[in-house]
Specification:
Elements lengths: L2 H15 L1 H9 L17 H15 L3 H19 L10 H6 L1 H12 L7 E8 L2 E7 L5 H14 L4 E7 L6 E8 L3
Antiparallel strand pairs: 1-2, 2-4, 3-4
Helix pairs in contact: 1-2, 1-4, 2-3, 4-7
Length: about 180
């Protein structure tokens, strides 16, 4: 997992829970990296799992809720840091339809060793989009948070129906339906 995900997670923890909590979840995790991350480094995703589990214990917020909140937060950070991905894109559906064929291609140019999830995308009509998430890291809750962040960014009224396709969160189907304003 790319270091930018770790650095942004710790930024979010500091912003929402304070520096002491961020420091505590890192020090109690016994991480191979020592909790020292660079944005361009690559780290085992199990370190993120340890950090989120520790934050859940410390904050009493369930892990799935923390992963969703982080996904929403990270999408906002991506908008700030990678604005060129959003030029000429006018809706959440238009953006999400480009995940595999444009966004992940560009991410791999920047970070050739990035281990990205895959998304099967079916845009059945103008008001319905289906995303099938697959990742051996089992972070469907995080993916849902990114989807929520995208919808919020484009200020659209979209209902999300999630169907877990595996018991380990490695596969999920997200059916997104635009609602009238």
């Amino acid at each position: 997992m790319k270091g930018i995900v770790f650095t942004e997670f710790l930024e979010m923890v500091e912003d929402k829970f304070g520096f002491d909590v961020a420091d505590k979840i890192v020090s109690e995790a016994s991480l191979p990296s020592g909790g020292i991350y660079t944005a361009v480094g690559t780290y085992d995703h199990t370190e993120m799992v340890s950090l989120v589990v520790n934050l859940s214990h410390e904050s009493q917020v369930p892990v799935p809720d923390l992963l969703k909140a982080f996904g929403e937060y990270l999408f906002g950070q991506f908008v700030l840091g990678y604005g060129h991905f959003f030029h000429g894109v006018n809706s959440a559906f238009d953006f999400m339809a480009k995940i595999e064929d444009y966004i992940h291609v560009e991410v791999r140019k920047l970070y050739p060793d990035a281990e990205l999830p895959s998304f099967e995308i079916d845009r059945t009509d103008a008001n319905k989009l289906i995303l099938i998430y697959r990742s051996e890291r089992g972070l469907a809750d995080f993916a849902e948070g990114l989807i929520l962040g995208c919808i919020r960014h484009f200020q659209e009224n979209v209902q999300i129906l999630r169907e877990n396709l595996s018991s380990d969160n490695s596969m999920a189907k997200f059916t997104l339906q635009k609602e009238p304003m």
